């Protein structure tokens, strides 16, 4: 739809950060990659689709921020004094940052699609998508929702064992 194309139209590159298991540092890699890109002058967004463990708002010290609506959807939270990192996470939609998200697949999949289509990212050089651990429906939903757009690639985070 035109709204979908509009909200991601200004995003030049999309990178997925994935792993086969939890606790390997996906969110840390996503955050550090965003900070490194920002430090080179790039405009960066992070889409945190780790719905059951949204840790990036806390990592970037914006966990008490709120998401607002605009004509084209949700406005992401802008991080830092320079506002060079845009962030969308379910962590901003919870009443309390430590609230648990106990949702079944269809509701999670609908929110992922909504995050992809309804966030007004503006112009970004990179959108980093931090995924949940494993190979669940959420990964399939994320890839399906992003299929119309050119993915730059994926970063697979692993451990030596």
Pick out the low-confidence regions: none
- In the CATH scheme, the class would be Alpha Beta
- The amount of helix comes to 25-40%
Query: What is the number of E strands?
Result: 8
CATH topology: Rossmann fold
The fraction of residues assigned to DSSP E strands is: 15-25%
Query: How does the major sheet shape up?
Result: 6 strands, mixed
Supply the CATH superfamily name: P-loop containing nucleotide triphosphate hydrolases
The figure for the number of domains is 1
Largest sheet, spatial ordering of strands:
5-6-2-7-1-8
CATH architecture: 3-Layer(aba) Sandwich
Residue-averaged pLDDT, rounded? 83
The backbone outline, from C-alpha atoms, is globular
Distance between the termini: 44 Å
Helix and strand sequence: HEHEHEEEEHEHE
Count the helices. How many?
5
Look at the helices and sheets and give the structural class: alpha/beta
Radius of gyration, taken over Cα atoms and rounded to an integer in Å: 14 Å
Q: How would you describe this structure in keywords?
A:
YlxH/NBP35; alpha/beta; Mrp/NBP35_ATP-bd; Rossmann fold; ATP binding; iron; 4 iron, 4 sulfur cluster binding; 161 residues; six-stranded mixed sheet
Question: What layout of secondary structure does this protein have?
Answer:
Layout: H1 2-9, E1 11-18, H2 26-39, E2 44-48, H3 56-59, E3 68-70, E4 73-75, E5 77-79, E6 85-89, H4 105-118, E7 124-130, H5 137-146, E8 151-156
Parallel strand pairs: 1-7, 1-8, 2-6, 2-7
Antiparallel strand pairs: 3-4, 5-6
């Amino acid at each position: 739809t035109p709204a979908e194309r509009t909200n991601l139209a200004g995003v030049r590159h999309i990178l997925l950060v994935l792993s086969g298991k939890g606790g390997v540092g996906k969110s840390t890699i996503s955050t550090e990659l965003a900070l490194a890109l920002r430090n080179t002058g790039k405009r960066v967004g992070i889409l945190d689709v780790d719905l059951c463990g949204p840790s990036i708002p806390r990592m970037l010290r914006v966990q008490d921020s709120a998401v607002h609506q605009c004509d084209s959807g949700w406005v992401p939270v802008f991080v830092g004094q320079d506002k060079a990192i845009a962030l969308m996470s379910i962590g901003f939609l919870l009443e309390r940052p430590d609230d648990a998200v106990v949702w079944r697949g269809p509701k999670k999949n609908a929110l992922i699609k909504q995050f992809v289509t309804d966030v007004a990212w503006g112009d970004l050089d990179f959108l980093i998508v931090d995924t949940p651990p494993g190979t669940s429906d959420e990964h399939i939903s994320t890839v399906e929702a992003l299929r119309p757009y050119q993915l730059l690639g994926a970063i697979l985070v692993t451990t030596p064992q």
